[in-house]
Write a structure and sequence with these properties.
Shape: globular
Strand content: under 5%
Helix content: over 70%
Membrane topology: Multi-pass membrane protein
Subcellular location: Cell membrane
Pfam families: 7tm_4
Number of strands: 5
Family: Belongs to the G-protein coupled receptor 1 family.
Largest sheet: 3 strands, mixed
Order of helices and strands: EEEHHHEHHHEHHHHH
CATH class: Mainly Alpha
Strand order of the largest sheet: 4-3-5
Number of domains: 1
InterPro entries: GPCR_Rhodpsn, GPCR_Rhodpsn_7TM, Olfact_rcpt
CATH architecture: Up-down Bundle
């Protein structure tokens, strides 16, 4: 149905990585690579959830948060990778309008929840290192549930706002999304409506979620490092740092990638430059924090965590 110069969109077409249309061998190289990464991510995060659920030694606040982090990683990876893999091997790279809405909603909700869960885990480590005597009281079951619930609520609010405002626009610049999934910037690039409010919401909401969670993490680790340096025992310092090393590694990788994408996309002041930078350069960052990082997280926490390694040894001996 046509209205003026705009057409009601019933489906979108995902351009993917661009090069896959120019070079036929592209799909044969990258499809197996991404397939292995995606399967590893799903197996690793699912395994982490089951391991924490079944091992009695891992029933602590730290692993409660880690279990939800694995769940969130599993959800937002599952929202984008099946369609991406399918588009490597099929000619018709379409996605229905409703499918695009759901993909953006699920992805945005869980990736935002991921940020807040990492901040909650930093608070947990801060209390464990800086106030160990009151740790069981401060990080009670109720407090942990509230922190996790708050993470999901913030993710739901962020996703609902962006999805609602994005798909209320009129699209008259075609239906080909220059990305491998339905992200906000590449969809806005197709709109013939004014997207000023959308760009403003993108800046404000992404900026708030990044800044607020980063401030919590920075505050927590400044106090953690200060407390560790004040310890007289070398063994105590080593033990305290080892409990935070895995989380700090995951935080550095996740926020480093997100901050680079967000800050660089706003190095140019024009609205159009912001959108197109997010579209083109955001593809690389999206692959990294949408696919690669969820794969790395189970490896980081399993290889650098003594309790997880011991639990894995028990499972290995039990079944093999």
């Amino acid at each position: 149905m046509t209205r003026g110069n705009s057409t009601e969109i019933t489906e979108f077409f995902l351009l993917g990585f661009g090069a896959q249309h120019k070079f036929r061998y592209f799909r044969y190289v990258f499809f197996p690579v991404f397939l292995v990464i995606c399967v590893t991510s799903m197996v690793g995060n699912s395994g982490m959830i089951l391991l924490i659920k079944t091992d009695s030694r891992l029933q602590t606040p730290m692993y409660f948060f880690l279990q939800h982090l694995a769940f969130v990683d599993l959800c937002y990876t599952s929202a984008i990778t099946p369609k991406m893999l399918q588009n490597f091997i099929v000619e018709n790279k379409s996605i229905s309008f409703k499918g695009c809405v759901m993909q953006l909603l699920v992805y945005a909700a869980f990736v935002t929840s991921d940020c807040h869960l990492l901040a909650a885990m930093a608070v947990d480590r801060f209390v464990a290192v800086c106030n160990p005597l009151h740790y069981p009281i401060i990080m009670s079951r109720r407090a942990c549930i509230r922190l996790v619930a708050g993470s999901y609520v913030m993710g739901s609010i962020n996703a609902s706002v962006h999805t609602g405002f994005t798909f209320s626009l009129s699209f008259c610049k075609g239906s080909t999304i220059n990305h491998f999934f339905c992200g906000v910037p590449p969809i806005l690039a197709l709109s013939c409506s004014s997207v000023g409010i959308n760009v403003l919401l993108l800046v404000v909401f992404v900026g708030f979620n990044l800044l607020s969670t980063m401030l919590v993490i920075i505050f927590s680790y400044v106090n953690i490092i200060t407390a560790i340096l004040k310890m007289s025992s070398t063994a105590g310092r080593k033990k305290s740092f080892s409990t935070c090393a895995s989380h700090l590694t995951a935080v550095t990788i996740f926020y480093g990638t997100l901050c680079y994408m967000y800050l660089e996309s706003h190095s140019n002041n024009s609205q159009e430059n912001i959108l197109w930078y997010c579209v083109f350069y955001g593809i690389v960052a999206s692959v990294f924090y949408g696919i690669v990082i969820p794969t790395l997280n189970p490896l980081i926490y399993s290889l650098r965590n003594k309790e997880v390694k011991e639990a894995l040894k028990v499972i290995w001996k039990k079944f093999f």
